[in-house]
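User: Please predict the structure of the protein below. I'd like the answer in structure-token form so I can feed it into my own downstream comparison script.

Assistant: Understood. Taking the following sequence of 309 residues as input:
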Amino acid sequence: MKPTLLCLLLLAAAPLARGVDLVSDSVFNDPFDNAGPVGKKLQSNSTEKKAADGSFHDPFAESNSTTAEQPAPAVSDPIEKVNRVFFTFNDKLYSWVLKPISRGFGFIAPTPVRESLDRAFVNLKYPVRGVNNLLEGQFTGAGVETARFVVNTTVGIGGLFDPASRWKLKPQPADFDQTLATYRIPSGFYLNLPVLGPSSARGAVGSVGDMFLNPTFYINPDWIGLAVTGANTVNYTSLHYKEYDTLKAGTLDPYVAMRSAYFENRRHALEKVRAKAQDKAQDNTQEKAQEKVQSKPRAKTKVVGQDKK
């Protein structure tokens, strides 16, 4: 019972350790990586002005030049008081339980070992990325993810190494929340759940879908699956715990900064998917145009003097 309880505590603090990356390790880019410009943006936009209707405008809307012409939609947070209570709960759980254990593990295990373990856990979650790529119509992405899984599982020794990236098989992030977004389902209002951390109404549904695609969900007995997930959480946090600390130190209101970063991260991932779809559509249009040109009958040319006998 005690090991199971410890694993549950680690799981509850996991989302804060990951910043805003809640579902898949490689599904979306962490907004706190390369924290130079992002960190400055978090500091300069640590507070938001409340609109008359009770919603919040995302301060990251003008940070991306590609979306400057289309301002970000307002962030709905109608249950902010409840969300802040859960945010504080997760924050204390992270600070008092997960962070000390992760730092201790980081002191024992060398960084290369922990990085290899992280790659193995990411490789294990291939079904989440593969299935959601298919659901999004990204068939090339699903094929690349499948190839990556085969290569890294075999040549990469169970995913401990990543030879697939050296062979130009780049990760193709995808999760169910992102899939729902591609079908124009709105994100809904913001949620900060006591176990799942930063999310939205759509994101909460997406988390359930991804849970059923995660192989660790089917490990029996249950305490072994919890132990595997807890080990993943501790290992990941040992590599990234400074990112959350930097966020807290660089803003007057960590709750607001986390909320803004969450929606910016989701939007950025969706823009990538739509960009891929547009590129694919353009390629198909160009191919059809070339086929039409090639299918036109060529005019017969006469050679001077050939018709004379």
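That's the full token string. The two ends are 104 Å apart (CA to CA).
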